[in-house]
Amino acid sequence: MKTIAERLQSASETIAGLCQMLNKSPSQVQLLAVSKTKPVEDILEAYQAGQRLFGENYVQEGAEKIQALQAYPDIEWHFIGPLQSNKTRLVAAHFDWVQSVDRLKIAQRLSEQRPAGSAPLQVLLQINISHEQSKSGVGDEAALFALAEQVNSLPNLTLRGLMAIPAADLDEQAQERVFSQLHSLFSALQARYPQVDTLSMGMSADMPAAIKAGSTMVRLGTAIFGARAKRAET
Ligand SMILES: *Cc1c(COP(=O)(O)O)cnc(C)c1O
What we know:
InterPro entries: Ala_racemase_N (IPR001608), PLP-binding_barrel (IPR029066), PyrdxlP_homeostasis (IPR011078). It holds the Pfam family Ala_racemase_N. Pyridoxal 5'-phosphate (PLP)-binding protein, which is involved in PLP homeostasis. The chain is of the alpha/beta class and 234 residues long. The protein has a single domain, classed as TIM Barrel, CATH 3.20.20. The protein contains nine helices and eight strands. Strand 2 (53-56), helix 3 (59-68) and strand 3 form a beta-alpha-beta unit. The two termini are 31 Å apart. Pyridoxal-5'-phosphate binds at residues 34, 36, 57, 80, 165, 203-205, 219-223.
């Protein structure tokens, strides 16, 4: 069985290979290691191999891991899960980024609850690109631009871009189509807000298509930490 360090190494090589093919610098595609359900020891193993960006999906679990790893202030913590308004306070207190903002109420609460003296929370707006009922996310371009304007005006948030999770059952062509739609939305957002620089798309199963379409951040869980047991917390 491969170690976490070996899996990180091989993911970086895959990313570098795709970037080379596209005439991009590998530094243009960041790797977010998605550590949900995995123990602190696994995160530390990845950290020791040089990984600094970690993504968590569950509020309580994420906050506990962040506290347990306080001695490593150079870790950048991304909240990437569905977020209910009664849990925003913990997220605002502990995370550096939130990738799953999809409505004004959540954004307002995150801004109000960001502790004084903390850097602004870095925010991505989640797009429900495959229009799935089971997924959160903004449903269309008009709603996206309305939300972007509101988020951009909140004092303790910085709007940095977009995140999406396409339907799981797409073939590679369909993946590319969806990712290129996302890239168009991203370009339009960037034209309006110059600080927008992050397009978070691509997971273990669809990373090549995402990078080809212009992803700037891939979110890898299984490919780095191995398969996960299912769990129920929302
Ligand atoms: C779990 C999760 C990932 C990682 O998924 P893998 O298929 O394990 O790579 C990425 N993004 C989000 C939003 C997730 O919830």
